Amino acid sequence: MANTFSFVGKLSRKKENAFVEKSFGSGWFTNELNLMMTCGDNVQWLRARGGAWDEKHADKNKVMTYKYNENGKDEAITVEWSDRFNKEIVDSIANYRTYTIDTEIKEVRDEIEKSGDEDAIAKSNKKHKTFITEIDFVKWLNTVTAEEKTKDWVWKVTGEVEYSYGNGQFYRNFVPRRVYHVDPKTEPQCIGTIKTFYSSDCIDETDNDFIFNVYTQYYDSQCKKNCFCEVPLVIAKDHEKAKGLKRQYSKAEDDAVRELSVNVKYINGAQKVAISMEHLSDDQLEMIEDGLVTLEQIQRDMGGSVYGDKKTETRITDLARGYVSGGSKETAYEKSDLTKVPCKDEVKEEVIDIFDDSDDI
Description:
Blueprint: E1 4-13, E2 19-23, E3 28-39, E4 42-53, E5 62-68, E6 74-80, H1 87-92, E7 99-102, H2 106-115, H3 118-125, E8 128-131, H4 134-146, E9 154-166, E10 169-182, E11 189-198, E12 203-205, E13 209-212, E14 215-220, E15 225-230, E16 233-236, H5 242-248, E17 256-274, H6 282-289, H7 295-301, E18 305-319, E19 329-334, H8 335-338
Parallel strand pairs: 7-10
Antiparallel strand pairs: 1-3, 1-9, 1-11, 2-3, 3-4, 5-6, 7-8, 9-10, 11-17, 12-13, 13-16, 14-15, 17-18, 17-19
């Protein structure tokens, strides 16, 4: 199971170099889009990148993908580049190999469909676009997010969390696959699922938190194999799941490695915390000492919470699907596998108008 994320918030672009095109001597080129997503108190960066061969090497362009056969099993297929927008072919591709951008709010489309207005339904459906190559997905997402009218829209973005290694450190990227325009009243969220691997003695603690020094797996394109990356996870000691998760992460013995998938909240920003004595000024402390006011009165007067220090961390919220009934599982890995150093340490495209002039965002 891939590590995944699900964010709800607003998308914004860097003033410069949000969309980057790179060409290589081989004839390969890439389009990369970098977006900032503000989800309430959290800010995360998304990166989508796709590549293809230039016009001189166009005969190399093929889409190697999967579809579901008559038995519902995956079947590898090759799609000709010129057929990659063929609706019948696109509809046959396995869902996990596609990319989606929908600029129509679901509830709005539902109302349009109830109306029976065929023209309005057709116009709404054109706002839902599915791609079978990442580069086409990146181009359309670039077009959508560059529009002035979308800058204040609320989006739900889901995708995969990818890790890479270079310059002696690991990098994490949130790579989108599904982008949906949602009701502006939708609550912000920054959640995901991580498959973790751990061995003995992986638990540290602070006054308030348990810290699980665990690893996750990623595919290293240089090594051509799966490698491990450390991803410390945190849970408050007073969290209702803290005791059980501590027990789960204590099950590995000696050099054995166990696995456990968990749901998490990605945090990057200053979070609201309940007002306590440490947040009060000298004057406020003096008023409490003199009996003029109470801490509870000050809390109510100040709204009950304040922003704490900026944090970048991943907090566990619960066990993930597949591990709820049985908890952690044994693996064939050994403790030394987790800490092995990975191996040491993409190009200009002819503009193809794949969206007709009547396409709305």
